Amino acid sequence: MAGKVKEEPVLLAVFAAALGYAVQALVNIDLPIVTPFFWGLMAMGIARIRRF
């Protein structure tokens, strides 16, 4: 994925959002309102990676 960030800067934003969600999940209670957005961002990131 790191090689594709230069071509697609949006991947960096998706990765940062996923990393932020994962970190808060380690130290905080689960936020059910945010979970659908997390899975949506993950799907968008995977779709962008597979497109190339």
Describe the fold and architecture.
The longest helix is centred in the middle third of the chain and has 18 residues, at 10-27. Helix 1 packs antiparallel against helix 2 (35-51). It is built from two helices and no strands. With 52 residues, the chain is mainly alpha-helical. 67% of the residues lie in helices and 0% in strands. The mean pLDDT is 79. The chain has helices spanning 10-27, 35-51. The protein has one domain (2-51).
Q: How far apart are the termini?
A: 11 Å
Question: Structural class of the secondary elements?
Answer: mainly alpha
Instruction: Report the count of strand segments.
Output: 0
* Poorly predicted tracts of residues: none
- What share of the residues lie within helices? 55-70%
Q: How many strands, what sense, and barrel or not for the largest sheet?
A: none
SSE topology string: HH
Portion of residues in beta strands equals: under 5%
Give the count of helical stretches. Answer: 2
Shape: elongated
Whole-number average pLDDT? 79
Task: Indicate how many domains the architecture comprises.
Answer: 1
Cα Rg: 12 Å
Brief summary of the model shown:
With 52 residues, the protein is mainly alpha-helical. It has 2 helices and no strands. Helix 1 runs antiparallel to helix 2.
Topology:
Blueprint: H1 10-27, H2 35-51
Helix pairs in contact: 1-2
Descriptors:
52 residues, mainly alpha, elongated
